[in-house]
Amino acid sequence: MRFFDTHLHLRSADRAGLDELLGKLESYPECLGGLLVLNTRQEVDVVHRHIDLIPSRVVLVPYFSAEHGLPAEITASGWYKIHPSLHKLGIDALPELDARLAEANPRGVMVHCFPWGTQLQYNVSLPFVIHLSQALPQSTILATHGGGYESWQFRAHAGGLRNVHFDFSMTLDYYEGADAVKPLQRYLIHSPTRIHFGSDWPSGNIERQLNEQLRLAREVGLDQERLEDLLLSNARTQWPDAFAPSISSGRSY
Length: 253
Hints:
By secondary structure, this protein is α/β, with parallel strands linked by helices. The chain has eleven helices and eight strands. The strands form two sheets. A five-stranded parallel β-sheet has the order 4-5-6-7-8, sandwiched between helices. It starts with a strand and ends in a 10-residue tail after the last helix. 44% of the residues are buried.
């Protein structure tokens, strides 16, 4: 099954980590491209130093920086990542973040939505997603991981917001077969154009998550070919510049 992976990372913030990612893409022809999320300044720096190695099918998504600027080559996609727990953002950070994002006028914002750990003051992804969706109506807000164990809350409170999209990266892996993955079926039925495949590689297992997404799709009447068509079409709509070269020899979407 061919796919576009909306959630890729570097294993390490150095040339070896970048080479491993590029090698993975080259050895995995089913993966037509993806989003490379850069959560730290170190990751931004290593990619910027080797920007000539990044193929056009890879979309760079740096963390949103309010403190200092990022290189234009890194922000060219117009997409940014917000990771409340990693960047220590509580609910009180939202007004300033909101204002600065409005100035940036992003094409899209990925929000980390996989609650974990003991620092519950940073478990604010759901209100972030809802607020940013309403404050940035022309931007796509991508709720990553589908919300993790809070996936039903995301379905209840953010599922009706049309510019909120979802990937279930890592949730399909960690919560395989559990109730937390079931909202994916509701999205496939009621809002299929807002679902994407993401793996969270190298933390997440790509093959296992593809199989789990296919299992869930089959249960609601989507076979592999229809699921592939849907996910590739959704990705191409959001990231056409990265996608078009990758599918020129395949089916038309």
